[in-house]
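Late entry, magnesium ion complex.
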Amino acid sequence: MDDQLALPVGTTLDRFIMRKQEEFPFASGELSQLLRDIALATKIVNREINRAGLLGVTGTFGQQNVQGEEQQKLDVIANIRFIRALRNGGEVCTIISEEEEGIIQTGNTKGKYVVAMDPLDGSSNIDVNVAIGTIFSIYRRLSDNGEDGTLEDCLQDGTKQVAAGYIIYGSSTMLVYTTGCGVNGFTYEPSLGEFFLSHPNIKTPQDGKIYSCNEGNVNSFPDGIKAYLNYCKEQHYSARYIGSLVADFHRNLLKGGVYLYPPTAKSPNGKLRLVYECNALAMIIEQAGGKATDGSERILDKTPTELHQRCPLVIGSPDMVDKVEEFLAAEFVAV
Ligand code: AHM
Ligand code: MG
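Prediction complete; structure with ligand written out below:
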C-alpha cells in the first residue's frame, strides 16, 4: 500500500498549464485559460469522434466548404464545438477556420487573442476509422482592444504565433502543443476525462529514414522532388503515408522523417493551408529541433496574404529537410 502511495501522480494538462504560467510572474492567465478552452473542446470532439459510427454522424453533410471540398458531418460538428468553446471562453476576439470563408467574430471584443484552426483535418479518413486531427495557432491581436479583430490580426507571419498545437484522434487521443519553450505531449485518459503529460519536451531526431508524401502525384512533382524520392529509395528509406497530416506529422516527429506536400498539376501551390495548417506545425517542429520550409523559404517567415492561402510543405527532421532543399536547389541550377 505504502509503495503504491509513493508512486508519482501523473501531471494533468491543467496542472502543467498552471505551472508554466507561474514561471512567468507577469502572466495574466488569459493564454492559460485559452489553452484550457481548447482542451475542453477537444474532449467534446473526441467523444463525438469515438461515437461517430454509432450515432450515424459519419458520411457527408451534403454541403461543400469554401475550398469546394465536401464537408463531413464531423467537420461541421468539430467546427461548431471549437468555435463555441472559444466564444464562451472569452479570450479570443476572432477565429479563422478551414470550414468558414471569412473571419469569425466571437463578440469578445476585449479578447486579446486570435485563433486559426483546422477543426478536423484529414476528414476523408473519418469514415474508415483512420487517425484524424485538429490543428491550431494562437496569435496576439494587433488591433485595439474593445473592437472586433481585423484581417490584419489574422494574416500575421508564423513567427508571431504565441502558441500552436494539434490533437491527434488515433489509437489514443493526444494533445501536443508549444508556447515557444519546447513541445509537450499529453495523452487523454477517457475514464478520468483528463489529459496527462506523456511526452515531455519532445525532440525530433536529427535525421530519419521515413518519407511521407502522396506518390500518386509523382508525375507532376517538381524534378527536384522526383530526384529526392529516388534518393530515398536508393537509401532504402520507408514510405509511410496515412493521408492525415497530423498523423503523418506526429509519427515523423517522434520517429524521425520528412513529410512533403509539393506543388502538383492539380494544386500548383501545394494543397495545405499556410495560416491554419503549415504555420502551427512549423512552430512545433522548430521547437522540437526540426525544420519546415516550402522547398526554399522557411514557413514561419512567409507573410500570408489570404486566409485560405495554400503553400507547399517540407517538414520534419532537419537533416532530411536540408536534403530535400539540396535536391530542389540542384534542379534550379540544372535548368
Ligand atoms: P483536409 O484539410 O481537407 O482534410 O485536407 C488536408 C489533408 C491532409 O491531412 C493530408 O495530409 C492531405 O490532405 C492529403 O492529401 P492527398 O489526399 O492529396 O494526399
Ligand atoms: Mg485540413
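DSSP finds ten helices and 15 strands in the chain. Will revisit in the morning.
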